[in-house]
């Protein structure tokens, strides 16, 4: 199991002080949070991609490259790379460059995003969201796995004998997750290529995600990548902790009640009951996170959202200390118990290189005897 944190990079007013951080403050805070994540022993730091206020992470590879120079072990990822509005050629080259600079400590999560206006800002039509995701990723996959690419599609100019540079480190592209909160087509796409599927389950009830993950697992096996239990699954979650649960609830409630992503809807108690949100003691976080395996099966990556809703940096760093000292060590031990031997570990560059050298390409490419996935 890999444990880490992911951020959406929101600039939100702290309701307890009325202070709104500047964009500069928020960007520097994200870097400090990533460094803290490595310090407390987490495996992954992931950033979203947004191009609209109140979010700041519009250039994930720039940020992750900066963080790569200041860390040694942390896997650097995106929690969304907009496969619909970014040019696949640019994604291929940017992330291969980042992969070289970070010594392979890079993967990325493809997503369509949750902001409708971003499509026309980049010359795209939101009504083509799923077809764009399918075609653009097919091209990106080809660019990473073939040196000379000929390509013609619906949404960009053709390519003739094109080579994306630099080539992926050690000839092995970054591992790809496909993130979704609602679209079975994206689960199908992840399964077709043998990639990972990240169910960002932080806002919806678990039954919805049980269906999506179940579909992905079944189709992963259908395409010949392994058994359903060998599919690569990641999950989200959001937590706020104090030694005593009453203190955690009292401190977090004003943030929940006022934050744009939470406030003015279900109560804190209702939201906690229906989603992964856990506000309480470290033991309560451990207990609830362990139930995820009961719902979704053994999985590979657990990311927590912790720096949101206007929480000040000092508080977020305190949360990471608690997570690293009291929560993750227990989760590692408990998730390892009874984990079947055939369930794969979380993906790393070294493991992917080893699999390539052993002649086992999964998860690396679509099966040769199937037609390309369609929207």
Structure description:
The protein is an alpha/beta fold and 375 residues long. Helices cover 42% and strands 14% of the residues. The chain contains 12 helices and 13 strands. The protein has helices at 23-39, 60-68, 88-101, 118-121, 129-145, 184-193, 206-222, 245-258, 268-274, 282-296, 313-336, 349-357; strands at residues 2-7, 44-47, 75-78, 81-82, 107-111, 149-151, 159-162, 175-180, 196-199, 233-235, 239-241, 278-280, 301-304. The strands form 3 sheets. The chain has a 9-stranded parallel beta sheet, covered by helices on one side. A two-stranded antiparallel ribbon has the order 6-7. It has a two-stranded parallel sheet with strand order 11-12. Helix 3 links the parallel strand 4 (81-82) and strand 5. The protein starts with a strand and ends in an 18-residue tail after the last helix.
Q: Roughly how much helix do the residues carry, as a percent range?
A: 40-55%
Tell me, what's the shape?
globular
First-residue to last-residue Cα separation: 32 Å
Largest sheet: 9 strands, parallel
Low-confidence stretches: 363-371
The total count of strands amounts to 13
Order of helices and strands: EHEHEEHEHHEEEHEHEEHHEHEHH
Q: What is the tally of helical segments?
A: 12
Mean model confidence by pLDDT: 92
The SS-based structural class is alpha/beta
As a whole number of angstroms, the C-alpha radius of gyration is 20 Å
Strand content: 5-15%
Main β-sheet, spatial strand arrangement: 3-2-1-13-10-9-8-5-4
């Amino acid at each position: 199991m890999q444990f880490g944190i992911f951020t959406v990079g929101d600039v939100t007013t702290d309701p307890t002080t009325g202070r709104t951080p500047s964009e500069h403050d928020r960007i520097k805070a994200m870097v400090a949070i990533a460094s803290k994540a490595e310090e407390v022993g987490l495996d992954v730091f992931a950033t979203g991609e947004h191009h609209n206020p109140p979010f700041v992470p519009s250039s994930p590879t720039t940020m992750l490259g900066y963080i790569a120079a200041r860390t040694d072990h942390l896997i650097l990822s995106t929690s969304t790379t907009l496969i619909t509005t970014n040019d696949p050629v640019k994604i291929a080259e940017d992330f291969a460059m980042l992969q070289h600079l970070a010594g392979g400590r890079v993967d990325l999560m493809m997503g369509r995003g949750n902001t409708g206006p971003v499509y026309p800002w980049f010359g795209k039509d939101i009504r083509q969201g799923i077809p764009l995701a399918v075609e653009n990723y097919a091209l990106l996959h080809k660019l990473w796995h073939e040196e000379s690419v000929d390509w013609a599609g619906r949404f960009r100019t053709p390519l003739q004998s094109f080579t994306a540079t630099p080539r992926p480190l050690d000839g092995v592209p970054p591992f790809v997750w496909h993130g979704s909160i609602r679209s079975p087509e994206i689960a199908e796409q992840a399964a077709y290529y043998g990639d990972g599927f990240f169910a960002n389950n932080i806002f919806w009830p678990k039954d919805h995600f049980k269906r999506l993950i179940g579909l992905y697992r079944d189709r992963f096996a259908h395409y010949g990548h392994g058994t359903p239990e060998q599919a690569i699954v990641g999950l989200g979650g959001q937590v706020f902790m104090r030694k005593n649960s009453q203190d955690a609830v009292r401190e977090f409630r004003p943030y929940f009640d006022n934050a744009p992503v939470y406030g003015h809807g279900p109560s804190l108690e209702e939201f906690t009951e229906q989603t992964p949100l856990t506000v309480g003691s470290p033991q309560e976080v451990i207990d609830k996170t362990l139930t995820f395996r009961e719902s979704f099966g053994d999985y590979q990556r657990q990311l927590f959202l912790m720096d949101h809703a206007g929480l000040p940096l000092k508080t977020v760093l305190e949360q990471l200390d608690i997570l690293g000292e009291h929560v993750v060590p227990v989760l590692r031990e408990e998730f390892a118990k009874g984990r079947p031997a055939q369930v794969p570990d979380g993906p790393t560059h070294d493991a992917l290189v080893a699999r390539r050298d052993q002649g086992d390409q999964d998860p690396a490419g679509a099966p040769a005897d199937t037609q390309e996935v369609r929207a």
